Amino acid sequence: MASRIGRRRFLAALGGAMVARPFIACAQQSGRMRQMGVLVGYAASADDTVARPVLEAFQEAMQGAGWTDGKNIHIEYRFAAGDPVKIDTAAAELVALNPDVIYGLGGLPAAKALQKKTRAIPIVFTQTADPVGFGLVASIPHPGGNLTGFMAWDLSIGGKWLELVREIAPDLKRVGVLYNPETGPYAAALVASAKTAAGRDVDVLEFPVHDDQGIETALSSIGAEPHGALLVVPEPFTNTHQDKIIALAIQHGLPAIVSFTGATRRGALISYTYAFAAMIQQPVGYVDRILKGQSPSDLPVQTPTKYELSINLKTAKALGLTVPNGLLVSADEVIE
């Protein structure tokens, strides 16, 4: 992970920004103070285990670009815990403060919520799927509005996730796909690509969920028959609930591909997703350029240049699975 800021230093640097106060108060202290909003759609607070590495990487990138919170920029944060209503409220609060730029962490729901609230304030999004298809930008090379940013992955990656599960579990017969349709509206395309990869040998079944009880019911159903597996669509709700999902997958004997950064360290069998540091830190380059006068409409949307495969051998052993040597060799991270 890119950031190595000590916990105490990080929280001290971030602490002042956690207090909700008007941006104008900081602006009055110095004519040079710039204002920025950050919406973290998939975390409940700055100190939870999901948000901490994200914010550390972000803070490090901002400092590297020459922006220090409280010195030449004031950063106001909002957290939404993967809840659509909270995401909308957080977006409204940040837009009402009228900052120079807003950084939307939390995929499509965060970006769409911000877009609905303003067509004037520059917005840089990240971890977002299909920004053209969902109307965030006019085109990848020419966004054309007040939004630009970085895509998480192409929606055909659902097929790759299915293939990875089947490589570890060759007797696979059925895969349950878990997602919240409110916070993962792109799930249908991922499911379609997974079905294409599965062919006739594996049934791909959808399990839309909205709460803890839904997660428990879905995992129990998927695990009720042998030779099953779990594919978790990365989106704010499932990200926020990933510990519960991973624990239940192990309890029900399900090989699970949970493609959030760090998911395998939390017990998931496989993760295959964008390189974490780049996806969080590269958008700061766009933030910097916007603060220096560039328009987001002139900054092309970028796609990931590197994906990372992580495998948890301890979980594989607990599930009675053997990971092929070829897959181990290709992995970027192997947890033993």
Q: Can you say what the CATH homologous superfamily of the largest domain is? A: Response regulator
Uncertain regions: pLDDT < 50 for 5+ in a row?
A: 1-30
User: What is the CATH first-level class name of the largest domain?
Assistant: Alpha Beta
Task: Figure out the total of helices.
Answer: 13
Percentage of residues assigned to helices:
25-40%
Q: Which radius of gyration do the C-alpha atoms yield?
A: 20 Å
Net shape:
elongated
Q: Average pLDDT, to the nearest integer?
A: 90
Give me a quick take on this structure.
The chain has 13 helices and 12 strands.
Commentary on this structure:
This protein is of the alpha/beta class and 336 residues long. It folds into two domains: 7-153 and 275-306, Rossmann fold (3-Layer(aba) Sandwich); 157-274 and 308-335, Response regulator (Rossmann fold). 40% of the residues lie in helices and 19% in strands. It is built from 13 helices and twelve strands. The strands form three sheets. A five-stranded parallel sheet has the order 2-1-3-4-5, sandwiched between helices. A four-stranded parallel sheet has the order 7-6-8-9, with helices on both faces. Strands 10-11-12 form a three-stranded mixed sheet. Strand 1 (34-40), helix 3 (51-64) and strand 2 (73-79) form a beta-alpha-beta unit. Helix 6 (157-168) packs across helix 7. The longest helix is centred in the C-terminal third of the chain and has 16 residues, at 276-291. It is elongated and about 60 Å long. Residues 1-30 have low confidence and may be disordered.
